[in-house]
Amino acid sequence: WLATGGPNNTAQLWDSTTGNQLATLTGHAAEVTAAVIDRGGNLLATGDDRGDIRLWRVAPNGQSATLVTVLDGHSRSITGLEFSPNGDNLISSSGDRTVAQWDIASGTEISGGVLGHPDWVASVDISPDGTQAVTTCDDGIVRVWSLADAKVIATTELAGKVVNAANFSPTAGRVLITSWAAQKVWQWNPAEAGASLETLAPTIDFKSEGGMLWAATYSPDGSRILTVGGNDARLWDVVGSSARTSLRFSPHGAVASVDVSPDGKYIATGSWDTTAKIWNIANGNVVRKLVGGHEGYVNSVAFSPDGLRLATAGDDGRVCLWELATGKQLPIETIRHKSPVRSVGFSPDGSLVLTASADRTARLWRSDNGQPVHILTGHKFGVLDARFSRDGLLIATGGEGNTARLWTTATGQQFREPLTGHTSSVTSVAFNGDGTRLLTASQDNTAKLWDTATGKEVLTLDGHTRELTSVDFAPDGRTALSASRDGTAILWPTANWAANAVAFGK
After folding, report:
1. Do 319 and 335 contact (CB within 8 A), yes or no?
2. Quick check: 129 and 146 in contact, CB under 8 A?
């Protein structure tokens, strides 16, 4: 069987030989973020964005699964699940900074088995013999643990960079380590004391090879490595401590963000190949490619109000400012977060830069010298979007904690309680022209309209079948636009919100 999970709060079982869907598993109250099947194909574990884990028994024909128990112990998103080789135990990694060990027979957490970390735990894997675990953490340290006593037995790190995944080799005791921020893959032997990723030669270096890197894993016999990034997958032959490409599948780029210049003549795109491009709208030609500013993929781009500068934000935690006339990066290096930056924008007068980050903050910076102005704290989870009102007096933020928040630009303080009502992450926010209304998009498949003066929900826009990725108001205020992973955008007439929305773009 193949198991998948996604933003509709369900998991699915599939027949991997035919591609047919066999069963849909319901019961999670949030996006299913992890799924694993034991080696016998009898048990399935699923975890969600709220930290709940569900254990299911799969029917012999795979066409149904019965809930066995709910494993309740984590308080944040489940980032990884693995059964032990003998199927007796399950381990789970979470954004709550822990890895837990569970006894399958009793459905209880193993006392004294918690692997504690100082920051978000991004991944977990179990060694082939079931005695060790390897974890990656947002502090940049890879840890190998003895599962019997929950002790760290080896570490390596990549200073200042996020290491997002680590996998044990099926043989030889090696660990495969992936960093999308550094765009490199390493093979590390935990038995080699003092080995550091800073000095260890990378097995695969996408900076020199070109392309994007999201994740890497060994083939079952350990002789090959599979990497994926953007829409590109590659199979590599392992040759000693290095690797060479043997097969490549669908090599394409991926665009993560777009903005239109104030005069309407240019488009800026940010790509997961670590670059941004400026395009001429009239003829579709590339005017300029902005390279060298980021070491991770670019998540957001924004023109300044005067159209003379572009801001780019990336997974490397950096925000770069560029001079459009020359394509040169401006000498401002201080606009930084320690975690990926999800969105960037200028204030209406161009004097401030607003950033939203996975480090649970939004921040205001001076655009002329990059000096910090305010840190907007209050979100309990990562902030996905931040926008100014059109007069620049207000700021709205939305994030993974299912809430949006309103702030006063001058003070950096919240001026009311969080806007609650969505049941999943808030992915995008937008003010109307006079700032009296706020529109929010969510992974719960809806958009909501709020009264900014009272904080009350005005109405819910329910027309998409999958998570929403963005919302915006038209400049004249007569329509609002929502976009979704269901492949459609919906144009909503604001004069009569409830009636006759027009869908297009399927």
Report:
1. yes
2. no
Q: Are 25 and 66 in contact (CB under 8 A)?
A: no
- Check if the beta carbon of residue 164 is closer than 8 Å to that of residue 177: no
* Under 8 Å between Cβ of 105 and 88: yes
Nearest in space to 376 (alpha carbons), one of 389, 365, 392, 390 = 365
What one-character DSSP code corresponds to residue 175?
A: E
Task: For residue 440, give every residue at least 6 positions away whose Cβ sits within 8 Å of its Cβ, in sequence order, or none.
Answer: 396, 398, 404, 419, 422, 426, 428, 429, 447, 448, 450, 471
Q: Strand runs (DSSP E) across 95-164, as ranges?
A: 98-103, 108-109, 115-116, 121-126, 132-137, 141-146, 151-157
Partnered with residue 497 across adjacent β-strands are: none
Q: What amino acid occupies position 172? A: A
Residue in 168, 124, 128, 169 with CA at minimum distance from that of residue 150: 124
> What type of residue is 375?
I
Torsion sign, CA atoms 184, 185, 187, 192: positive
pTM for this model (two decimals): 0.55
- Fill in the DSSP letter of residue 318: B
Residue 200 has, within 13 A of its CA and on its CB side, a CA count of: 25
Q: What is the dihedral of CA 322, 206, 94, 316, to 10 degrees?
A: -20
**Averages of pLDDT over each 10 residues, the chain, 506 residues:** 91 90 93 94 94 95 92 94 95 96 95 94 95 93 95 88 88 87 89 76 82 77 76 73 67 67 86 85 82 88 95 94 94 91 96 96 96 96 96 96 96 95 94 94 94 94 90 85 83 66 40
